[in-house]
Amino acid sequence: MNPVSHQKTLLRRTMRGRRRALAAADSQAAARAAVHAPLARLGPGPVAGYIAQGAELDPGLLMDALAQAGVGLALPAAVSREAPLIFRAWAPGAALAPDAFGIPAPLADQPQVLPTALIVPLLAFDRRGGRLGQGAGVYDRAIGALGAERRPFLLGYAYAGQEVEDLPLEPHDQRLDAILTEAGLIEVR
Question: Which residues, at least 6 apart from 47, have a Cβ–Cβ distance to it below 8 Å?
C-alpha cells in the first residue's frame, strides 16, 4: 500500500466514528443543510443524489425540494463491483432494489441518464474540494468515466464536523465543486 493510501485508510477509521457521533448528536442536520442548498446551481437536472447508508447525512429533504422545483432526479446504481456507477432516473417514492453493493437503487427498467450534478456522500472533506469516500472508488470511477466535457457539478453533502484541514489525495481522486453542510454552503477555493 502506498503512503497516501495508508493515510486515507487510517483517516477513514477515525472519520467513520466521527460521522456516527455527529449523526447521533444532531438529528436535524439534514433539514438545516437542505435550507442552504444552491438549487439554481444544480440546474434543471438530472441531479443524482443517493440513498443514505448508516450515518451518512440524508439528502432526502434536499431531493424532495429539487423534485418540487421540477428538477429531474437520478440515483446511482452499481451493476457490478468493478464497473463505474451508472445513474438511473428516479422520483421520490419510486421502487428501489439492491444494486451490486446491496444499496437501494432504481429498478433496472428505469432509463440511464447523464447527471448534470451529483450530490455525493463522504467521510471527510477539505476546503480545497478534497473528498474522502468509503474507499471503493466508485464515485471517482463514475465521474472519470463521464469525461472532462461531461463532468457534473459535484456537491459534497456532509456534517460540518466532517471537515479536515488537508486531505491526502491521489491522482484519481475527483475534487468537489462545493460542500453543503448544516452550517451552510462552502465554495471550494
Answer: 63, 66, 71, 72, 73, 74, 115, 116, 117, 118, 119
pLDDT tens digits for range 143-186: 988 887 889 999 999 999 999 999 998 888 999 999 999 999 99
The answer on pLDDT for 48 being more than 80 is yes
Cα of 121 vs its chain's centroid, Å: 3
Is residue 57 over pLDDT 80? yes
Check residue 145 and give its pLDDT: 87
Q: Could you please report the per-residue DSSP string of the chain?
A: --HHHHHHHHHHHHHHHHHHHHHHH-TTHHHHHHHT--HHHH-SS-EE-----TTSPP-HHHHHHHHHTT--EEEEE-SSSSSPPEEEEE-TT--EEE-TTS-EEE-TTSPB---SEEEE--SEE-TTS-EE-SSS-HHHHHHHHH-GGGPPEEEEE--GGGB-S-----TTPPPPSEEEETTEEEE--
Phi-psi region of 87 (alpha: psi -120 to 50; beta: other; left: phi over 0): beta
pLDDT at 77 over 90: yes
State the pTM of this model: 0.95
43's grid cell = 440546474
pLDDT at residue 129 greater than cutoff 80? yes
